[in-house]
From TrEMBL, chains A, B:
Subunit relationships: Homodimer.
Domain Aminoacyl-transfer RNA synthetases class-II family profile: 151-552
InterPro entries from the UniProt entry: Aa-tRNA-synt_II (IPR004364), aa-tRNA-synth_II (IPR006195), aa-tRNA-synth_II/BPL/LPL (IPR045864), Asp-tRNA-ligase_1 (IPR004524), Asp-tRNA-ligase_1_N (IPR047089), Asp/Asn-tRNA-synth_IIb (IPR002312), AspRS_core (IPR047090), GAD-like_sf (IPR004115)
Protein location: Cytoplasm
Identification of the protein by name: Aspartate--tRNA ligase
Record gene name: aspS
Aspartate as annotated region, ranges: 198-201
Source organism of the structure: Flagellimonas pelagia
HAMAP family, per the entry: Asp_tRNA_synth_type1 (MF_00044)
Family: Belongs to the class-II aminoacyl-tRNA synthetase family. Type 1 subfamily.
The reaction(s) this protein catalyses: tRNA(Asp) + L-aspartate + ATP = L-aspartyl-tRNA(Asp) + AMP + diphosphate
């Protein structure tokens, strides 16, 4: 037996017991006549003590020489601690060591195993197994486990069935790039790893499974932006015989349950906002509504004066930044520089200081009088003491720029509180999205999303205006889930494929099995998928998903710990009937 | 709202309620003046009724023409059924239909959606979404869900943490063939799909995670025997600071819990048997101990007579087949033919009838008298009325042949009862296995398995004799789980790699990260993995895992429903810098 107790278990009530502990040497304090060893495991730290009065000298010597992270087993008696440590649960006791066994030695770790480590991201990733010993990482993984368990329990209690769908499926050019898996047994053919179990969950609905869920890995071979992973985890759900309202209620229930169980936060009813309103009011389809700075559109009150920049703009739009009228010229110039950065892309910024005395001072005083500016204040909701920031130009990019500014200011002003939770349903998404480059439309959600009732005809005349039965769940400015009511009849699905530019042959080759299935009594159905990595990170009060993944990959899709991907043997290539076209 | 109730919900207490049901038309019975429709969903069947007295004629007409598997919505009143059906929970009531909406039509399904269908395996796999509508398949999937939930709950309650390990990892030539995934971003390099999360779970132990579990997909690109799948699901577990005894107790606990919760079967203590005993007594490392026919080794009592076949054999071994002394000559000849089939491979079979009157009649009466045969009966435990079947030859193949015969006879005699459960720990596996073809040793379990204490030196002198801290859990003749105590120090691991024929460079290239990790304070650890597909099938009282997988692949690794794997675009190949060496 390696241990009778863990290093987090012993209390004052255990004083007098003989115990065996195993763990890692966290710290050794050698005061000459007495040596203390902090012994650490997943459950906590227990102080071991050895001293000249009560401990054999060779044992004391052995303890003195223990290096950090050595794995040891210690036997001894639980005794009361002279100077108690109220900061740890085991702080009332220590263990007077009578036997000490070194189970495994350790080299000096490349970074300190402390909550605040001296290791940078790269080295921590290379030695991720050491990083996981640190409380913040360990606790994130345990937190994720708790979340997953809670999700499964809730959905199972609601009658959802966890069904495992296959990982070796078929490539579909639609959407992001697939990871491909050459088949040895079927020469020249490839499997693809699923970007999501979308078609399978729909087939389960056709199969009468009624309520399906799965916590499942998905794969996208995309160029990785910061905080994207080539493999990620989804809470994937689908229901039959439902309308949008049923889905929203069901998964609002799940999210409320998680917020309550995991965070102790109770939220009554989640607000809902149309996609159009979200874009108009926040310039963003995933607005963070924990704070204000709602957009005010100023075309009516700012155009048709002599200011050509505004007059020629499709959209003039501003936000009232609370308490920022006191910004110095230098601070405001810095803001203007910020919006002009290439990543944001604004041409410039007009501002209005709403002074405490009710007067206004703007960067466009030449064109607008106090009365004009008062109207701007009214539209943006600015109060005395606020600063109105105004951008103008083509509607879409201008909204995106002002949204970026709004988020930046909120971050700077500490308005994005990690312990505050503001969920929001964004609904009525457009069905199609115009690819500006090619001038063609593609599905905003995916090609199985159903248009709003009665809007199918619009596909012919004004495809961009067709709204979908599609919805996103937004939490604190992050999309944590998204889904739709699906098309469930073959004709509508064929029409959709046509408008997405598929020939009937292409549609049949790729989704023939789904369209076949729709001929055999497909029920109305819809679903949603949550990004578990992000959901866990947000509920964990953090923004970086990598901190909640045991073995994440870096921005080049590499696992730097195991050094993958890697070159393979020629023999393996031969078996797959493949040849590299270059050798790098 | 598509439904107020499911098709399995309504009871006599609902009589008088107005309800809305949705589901599939299971059957229409048209008696002219009255039409009954069996409406089916996941939860059951409810009878709809329409008749000339109470239903509008056009509604009656509509109902009459409903094809099987049409998806409909029906509104109506719950009424008492004239002739009750005690076989279904809704049998006391029916719904008098006032509104009927066709939600989706269906072609005639290619096989009947009944518990006993007329569809063969191939057609059912192609239309798996229809197959899933059938109760046996649907119930298997729900049963699997219940099992998974119960496993997670039990392990989580025991302090195990569900940690997701990566799917895009590194190829290792050890063991079965990997599925490979070409990396687009890292030209010429490949990921591999995990055959198991073995190294990651060991790294989690190095990381102090202490107790890990995961229900996880694993992948093996092997030529598929019947009832193997290229992707399969494991309950994967690992613990730190444990000895073999701790692991056996913990997972005996899990298995007992499942047997009790899922099957209502209580089993006290699982028996244990060494690998050597299992081979000696059952000729098999996964013996089915639900029945007897234990091997009796007859060398001592059958050799050194004049029977050359036995005298020259390494092993003479028999079983007593209960009650089979009455077999006719023809039946016995058929048994002899059976063992001589190429799949079994015996040269012949000697038999002894133990007559009810205490006399013996054997096929080798020329060489053995009654006294000799009485000794055979003693060794094999044969009683009057039994038939002793004896095989001889080289020990290993002879044991395998007799084991095959034992299982065949048990199947024929109905001794393998699906509702009887006989778990067994097989322990003390050999560390290494001789590859007869190449004359080299490879790891029987995997290269991380630790030898029994003190046996490391034997590796040099008699590698085949080294026993491992490795164990299998066997249930009803199937290996449902297997694991080992791992090596946790770098030196032993290096020695192992050496004996497995790795050069230090190869070991470093493939497992360098693990050996590195072992330098930083790896704790003693061990684990186990259960094959979930098989475990579910056995607890479900069946043998075929395919029946418990939503979307299984066939013996060529194909998903015949979605038609995968498939050819891909040249463009996709180009992006991966790959070329096919043949085109087929």
């Amino acid at each position: 037996m390696y241990r009778s107790n863990t290093c987090g278990a012993l209390r004052a009530s255990d004083i007098g017991s003989e115990v065996i502990l195993s763990g890692w040497v966290h710290k050794v304090r050698d005061k000459g006549f007495v040596v203390w060893v902090d012994l650490r495991d997943r459950y906590g730290i227990t102080q071991l003590v050895l001293d000249e009065d009560r401990t054999a000298l060779e044992l004391l010597e052995k303890a003195r020489e223990l290096g950090r992270e050595t794995v040891i087993q210690a036997k001894g008696q639980v005794i009361e601690r002279a100077s108690k440590n109220p900061n740890i649960p085991t702080g009332d006791i220590e263990v007077l060591v009578s036997e000490l066994t070194i189970l495994n030695k350790s080299l000096l770790p490349p970074f300190t195993i402390e909550d605040e480590t001296d290791g940078g991201e790269d080295i921590r990733m290379k030695y991720r197994y050491l990083d996981i010993r640190r409380n913040p990482v360990k606790n994130n993984l345990i937190f994720r486990h708790k979340m997953s368990m809670e999700v499964r329990k809730y959905l199972s209690d609601q009658g959802f069935v966890d069904v495992e769908t296959p990982y070796l499926i078929k490539s579909t050019p639609e959407g992001a790039r697939d990871f491909l898996v050459p088949s040895r047994m079927n020469e020249g053919q490839f499997y693809a790893l699923p970007q999501s179990p979308q078609t399978f969950k729909q087939l389960l609905m056709v199969g009468g499974m009624d309520k399906y869920f799965q916590i499942v890995k998905c794969f996208r071979d995309e160029d990785l932006r910061a905080d994207r992973q080539p493999e990620f985890t989804q809470i994937d759900c689908e229901m039959a015989f439902v309308e949008q309202e049923d889905i929203l209620n069901t998964f609002e229930g799940l999210t409320k349950h998680l917020l309550k169980e995991i965070k102790g936060v109770e939220i009554d009813k989640f607000p809902r906002m149309t996609f159009d309103d979200a874009m108009r009011l926040y310039g963003n389809d995933k607005p963070d509504i924990r704070f204000g700075m709602v957009f005010g559109e100023l075309n009516a009150v700012a155009q048709h004066k002599d200011f050509g920049v505004f007059n020629s703009a499709e959209l003039v739009v501003g936000i009232a930044v609370p308490g920022a009228a006191s910004y110095t010229r230098k601070e405001i110039d810095a803001l203007i520089d910020w919006v002009k950065r290439p990543q944001v892309g604004a041409k410039g910024m007009v501002y209005v200081k709403c002074n405490e005395d009710g007067t206004y001072k703007s960067s466009v005083d030449k064109f607008y009088d106090e009365q004009d500016l008062a109207k701007w204040a009214e539209v943006t909701g600015a109060k005395p003491g606020d600063l109105i920031c105004v951008l103008s130009g083509d509607a879409n990019p201008t909204r995106a720029q002002l949204s970026a500014l709004r988020m930046e200011l909120a971050n700077r002003m500490g308005l994005r509180k990690p312990d505050e939770f503001a969920p929001l349903w964004v609904i009525d998404f457009p069905l199609l999205e115009l690819d500006e480059e090619t001038g063609t439309y593609h599905a905003m959600h995916h090609p199985f999303t159903s248009p709003k009732p009665g809007q199918l005809e619009l596909l012919e005349t004004n495809p961009g205006a067709v709204k979908a039965n599609a919805y996103d769940l937004v939490l604190n400015g992050n999309e944590i889930g998204g889904g739709s009511i699906r098309i469930h009849d073959k004709e509508t699905q064929a029409t959709m494929f046509k408008h997405l530019g598929f020939t009937p042959e292409e549609a049949k080759a790729q989704f023939g099995f789904l369209m076949d299935a729709f001929q055999y009594g497909a029920p109305p159905h819809g679903g949603i998928a949550f990004g578990l990595d992000r959901l866990v990170a947000i509920l964990g009060g953090q923004e970086t998903i990598r901190d909640f993944i045991a073995f994440p990959k870096n921005n080049s899709g590499r696992d730097v710990m195991i050094d993958a991907p890697a070159h393979i043997d020629q023999e393996q290539l031969d078996e797959l009937h493949l040849k590299l076209t270059h050798t790098s």
